[in-house]
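Shall we go through a protein fold together, starting from nothing but its sequence? Please make up or recall a protein chain and show it to me in full. Go ahead whenever you are ready, and we will take it from there.
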Amino acid sequence: MSEFDWRSPEAYQHAIKSGEMADFAWESLRRSSNYRASYRENRSQMTSEFRRRWGVCFRS
């Protein structure tokens, strides 16, 4: 993923025009309290159910 300064309004304008979809998807998940809670509950063992629900995969 690219570097993204989430504090900068200019960065959002640039990201909208040239950003990668993965950056927007990650920001959406990262800010979701439901995702964060689910991750905390499952971080010791990432199940296929968790990956399907949130549409994520993790590199080993």
Summary: The first helix runs from residue 9 to 18. The chain has a mean pLDDT of 80.
